[in-house]
Every structure is written in C-alpha cells, then in structure tokens.
Amino acid sequence: MTRTEDVTTLSAKTRPAVIATRKSCDAEGTGLSHYVLMDRLVKR
Amino acid sequence: MPASWTDLFGGRLPDGLERFDIGHADYCALIDADTAFWALVRHDEIGRVVADGSLEAEWRAKAGDFAREMEMLRFHLKPSAVYFNPTERCNLDCSYCYIPQDMRRAGEHMSRERLHDAMVRLEEYFARTVPEGRRPQIIFHGAEPMLNRDAMFTAIDDFGDRFRFGVQTNATLLDDEAIAFLTRRGCGIGLSLDAPLPEVADRSRKRWNGDGVFRSTVEAIERLRGYAGFNVICTMNRENLGHLVPMVEFLHAREVPACMLNVVRCTQPGGRAAWADDEAVSAAYLAALDRSHELFMQSGRKLVVANFANILISILAPTARRLMCDISPCGGGRSFFALAPDGSLFPCSEFIGLPAFAGGNLFTDRIEDVLNSPAFRQVTGRKVEDIAACAACPVRHFCGSPCPAEAHEANGGMDRIGAYCGFYLEQARYAFRLIADGIADDYLWDGWDEGAETTFAFGC
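Above: the input entities. Below: the structure tokens describing the complete assembly.
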C-alpha cells in the first residue's frame, strides 16, 4: 500500500472531523532555491 | 445550507473557503489561498462543519494576521544569502546544466584578490541589511567551485566568523584534505548524483570526454558519512525517473541526512531535452517519498527530501520554509541573489546564462540599486496573481509557480507557468494526505518547528 492515492489507515469515525493548524515564526531561515541549508544541523 | 455541499468538488464555497480534493479516502481540504489557510475536513462531516460556522469564524478572526504574514513573507524580506560562483569553468559537461557550455569550458576564474574584494563588498552590504547576530549565507556554486579552491578556502577562513558557508560541488575534486577543511569549519556540502547505478547516473553527469563521475561522487558520499551538514541533489530527468526509489534506498543506506529530488529546469535547451511530463515525474517522485517513509519506519533514521519538506512546511508554517522556489514571488533577487565571476549580479543562478537578467555589477554598482534594477524587477515582480493559470489555483502559495527563468525561456514570459504545474499540485495533495494521516513530521527534520509558535489549532 502506498500513500500516493486514496489511502486510509484508521477507521474514519475515529478521526477528528477537522484538522487545521498553523505555526508562525520569524522568517529568518528563508534563504535559497537549489541548495539545502544545513546550518542548523551542523555543530560548530 | 445547499443540498449539494458534500458533492462539491472544487469551486469556492459561500463561506469563502475553497474545496480542494486531496485524494484522501476520509478528508478533503478547505483552503483560503490568499492567506495560505487550510483545514482538512472529514468528507462525512463537511456539511455539519460548514453549517456550524465555528471553523469559518475562527479563520475569519485570524485572516488578517495570516494575510500580514504572507505579505511580509512575499514582499518584505531582504536578501540573506548569495550564490557565489567563483569560477565559470566546470570539469563536467552535464547534459542539463543551466550555465552555457562555452562559459563552462573556457570561462574565467575569480582571482583570490578579486574574491576577497567581493566578500568585503558583500559584508558591507549585509551589515546594512541583516540584523546583528545573524550571519548571511554564502554558497559557493557553479560551474564547479572547487576548481578555484584556494581562493574559495582563503575566503572561508578570512570571513568564517561573519558568514555561514556552503559549497555545492560535483565532488570530483573533493579530496580528504578538502573534506577535512570544510567539515572542521562547519561548512555545508552539497553533492550531485542522479542515480544509484553508474550506467544511469553517468548519462547526465559526465566529463567533457564523456566519462561519467558516478564513482567519485559515491566515494565522496562514503567519506562524508556521519557529517550532519551534507546532502545530495538528484536532478529528476527523463533518464532516471525509474530509479528514484532505489536512489532513496541507496542514499539512506549511506546515511545521507538529506537530499533534494529536483526537477530538471527547462531554462536552457539541455534541460528542455531532459524534461519529463508531470504524470511521470509525480508517480516516480511520490513513490520515492513513500519509500523514504518506509525506510524511516524500519530504521528510525530519516532521509529528509528537502524540497518536499519545504512544500510541507509551507503548508504547516509558511514562515518556517527554508527554500524559496515554491513561493511567489520566488526568492530570486529578494531573499538571495547570484554573483558571477565577472561581478555580474543575477536574481538567481538559474539566470546566469541569460545576460539580459544581469542587474548590475558588484564591483561598480550598489547592491541596493541592482536589486531595484529593471532586470531584477522582472523576477521579483512575478507573482501568481498575474499568471492566469495560477490566479484561481488553491495551492498557489504552496507552489509559487516556479520557475521564472524556466517560464520566461521555455514558455514565453514571466506571466506564464513553469514546466511542472501538475507536479506541484500533486506534491501539495500528497502533503495534505500526510497531514490527514498524522505523519507529516516523519518527513521533516527533527526540531523543524523550533522557534515557531502555534497560531491556529482547530479540532486537534
């Protein structure tokens, strides 16, 4: 089974009727296009 | 309440939210595209939820905040990163490269003194724009930056306390000494590999004499094992789509912490020749994402597909995104810009082969003036509201209609879509399915939401 189409893993009735979340932060990390910023993972 | 609520597929509901089919058995999405607001609602509950009105009321109460957040993200960022090309030359002749062949074959190097001067000028600029305590990013890019290694490494040592550095390299020149230098200084290292088999990878990434570089890239991946700051870019093209699942397995087995599965951009003729259609790209890509999750479930270790992670984050926390292709206007010329070895400044590396998009020169012009040049404004002014196919699309702020260089060169103008509209739509639908299934975090870096606060939570 894949998640690429029409997958359900739980009984529908046990799931919340609505899922709606949003998080916000300072956009300081926004940066590049075709380079992965790994700076948060590198300990200096 | 209209009798047809539960039968609606697409279209704008009277409450202002637009219904969007995410291909999930239990949920559909309600979206306000302008504010990038979304809610997933169970199919069998949608009539009740809409009639109840409390979701709508909470959304409306926050809509102004969300609109301001998107306005800031889309129009008020200042550059914090530079693609720095220290040489035009490359020792490879990859079939889809966006830098013209004559430039890569016989172009110029930036001298050590010139490179130092460029860094001084960039430091002066960022001192005016980046808040104290934050370090802007310099990504040495190419062409092949390691061909100008000495000048590049000197700059990393001279400016390492004021900038963060990264290098995107084909790995052919990444010897033990270079790896030790870069890893000891915490530099990011990006490698490129298109398939787990030499007979496939070497079709697209090869030297001028036609020899592939699969072996040297894999050796570098092995030597970097355990280093948290490296990643691999796989450029999806018509040659390797059938190998993306084994590619994910290959990278995961070698403990690569992150990769990108990027579509080949159709800006240059070589890219257009490698193009594959949305359906084929989507099927291969989503299967690879599925596989990355299976591997995480089996091993407890993630291989983050960073470009997909960014789409997911653009939905969960728009301001926490780390990449700026999938937002409109894109980040080119506003959150980053590109520097060519002759000092020319472009909105993005993707434009370096297009002289009309040079907005000025680092050594003769003020960067602020370059950012406001007509050449840059063509890119920074391109927004989904002005693109007919995007203006009514519910996922327009999770996609951003990339890429302007591609739209301009391959499709005829900045008001056109890029080459992979359907692919981005499928990524958004897949991302929503993960959220519906409660497994979105499995696809993201641990701690991705550090510093973010929850500003909306309904039904959770």
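Note for the figure: Strands of chain A lie at 18-24.
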